[in-house]
Amino acid sequence: MAMYNPAHPGELIREEILAPLDLSVAETARRLGVSRKTLSKVLNCRGAVTPEMAIRLEMLFGQSAELWVKIQAAYDLFQARKKAKEFHVSPIKSHAQ
Q: What stretches of 1-97 show up as alpha helix (H) in DSSP?
């Protein structure tokens, strides 16, 4: 069953990890080896957690890269499903029907 309105992974990183550890965006970006701008996009839900970023997060914080990718995928899929009525798709009917 699909999750209802899953959080963007950036929101989780910002609120559940950085805030309790009192880590700044600049310090976290430095530790991840990315630009402050790149991390800021993710934290402000304007950028995705890519597989590469997921591995960096795994290395820094310990949660698996697979977890971050799954959180991002759940968020992306939910956003896409909200637009599904706009899609112009003609289903293929099988011969068994």
A: 9-12, 19-21, 25-32, 36-43, 51-61, 65-82
